[in-house]
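chain below, 629 aa
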Amino acid sequence: MSDTREGVNVHKRNRSNVFENRFSRNLLCAVVLFAICLLDAVAQVESKPQEAPKPYAGIVDADTIWLETYSKEVGRRVAYLGERNKQGSADIFQDTWMDMVRHLVFVRAAHDRGIVVKEKDVDSILLKSTPDYVRRGVVDAQGKFDLPTLTAMLFNPDSVVKSRAPDLSANEFAEQVSELKKSMQGLRLQIKITTTETLLRNILRSGFNLDTAALHDQFIVDATQCKADVVLIPCNTRVAMPLEKDIERYHGVNQYAYTTAVPLRRVATLSWPMVAAPVDSALLLNNIREFILLLNKAKSAVIRDSLWNSVAATTSSGVARLNADSLASREFYNAVKGKKAGAAAGPIITQAGVHVLLIDSVFTLPKTKNKQYDIRILATQIEPSRETIDSILHEVTESQSMYDQGKPLGEVATKFGRTIELSRYFSATDKLFGSYRQTEAAFSTQVAAGCPLVETPEKGVVLAVVIDSIAPGSLPLEAVRDRVIADLQRQIGCTDTERYAKSVKGLIIRLPEGVMIIADKINTAEIHRDVNIEVGGMIGDNLFDTVAATAATSSRGPGLIGPFLGDLGWYYMNIISIVHPDENEFDLYVKLKVAEAVESQFEKYWAKFQNDLVRDASITDNRWVYFRY
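prediction:
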């Protein structure tokens, strides 16, 4: 319980800091959270330097991932990926962690095989076999690779900074030298990682043998050629919900089809969304109106720009050109219409947040005489205040205390007006409610116990209780009920369609010259003529059905086959032409494909090798002491 309390306290401090400035978006909230937690650690170091341990994010076997190193890499990735909306913060935390874990187990595996890349080896590669991406980044005035400059950057950074910027102050000079040294250290590390990987790959490749059985399977796929006309009669999809006894019977008979290779868990949850209270919205909008009033009362453009820039530095901002003919910006155009340059307008509330507009210039368009406005835009979100957050967290911690003291979860839910929700079954590597931390908390908690409180992007703060744990093997009906129902309904729908599918057999005729004709319209049927069918399952460009493709490519020769049931429904096929593999050609195929096959199979082996290293490593994950998701 003390760990939980501490987690909530850390969370409370972090959330409070986020809302100090109402105009701040704080898109990089996770990095800010780390900074705040680190301040506590720094304060402890100052008071008791001999007792304060250096914070770490995790331990992989005997190697430590320091919190400082991990957080810097998270911050770099958040800045690069998060601002481009390519990846959420939870995924950035997870991917950064997994990359660092893989690097450590990878280095250890290389060391165990006698691979040690020293700094002198790295410098030799940089100077004698300089990678292209380095050559392109260090060039002279003519755009050619500048080896002397690279040498100086590696071994004498002071001279490089002094020659490029001789007028720097002492502090600026020291800062520039420090940054250059860090860059060179990062470059050396990258070369070391790449070189180590290459050497380890070479060792593994030297002992790698081609799997001829897998190559033979590929030979069958490549050598089989089939062309056909296809008639597909989809199964009936309007099927009533099966009875419970039928669902149980179907699951029992087909239990082999519903298994898991990894442990699964499920939780029951109560959640408290971190949403703004009405008073928060009112306060924010009042502040924005006061800001707009200050802008419009500014006596000069310098004062107005200073006010604007002071806020733009802490929130989302941009520029736009507004035209009367644009539907996308109609709301913004109506807000500034008729106003002069220098005027501010707002607040304008949209799904993207609350906006403030500042007119830079106004133009009259020829012919139409409509006005065109060049504007600056500020955008912010209506977020909960510190008081609202504290109130929510107080309620959450009280609910957890009640459950820990033995109160049933239903009674806790009733007291706080919450609804109990059941999660899906999830594995230890899944993301639950947008959070990897929630998954980690569930797998570190025993069944029937309450997990540590976690704030998630999708549900807010969650009180989760582990209600089920499944070992690898067959899945119980409750874990796959939706899949079983869908499969059973498909079976029922195909059975309903079977009589009709067989009744139209006389309408599909193959002429002696091999042409398929259909004597009458077949309801609901899809007809695809002269399509290629691949062993892997592709039928033409639009259908994928492994069962039907296997039936077609296994046929002995041209002719009409069907009706038969595939994954998508009932089929008739007019096999126009088919070529089966000639086993006598396999040796020639191996000679032609051996280099490509070795490379393809080795890449799969290499990926499995790395995954196995991570699976077998002893990993202590301490990230969630500092990070939210």
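The chain is about 50% helix and 20% strand. Residues 170-206 form the longest helix (37 residues).
thats it, cya
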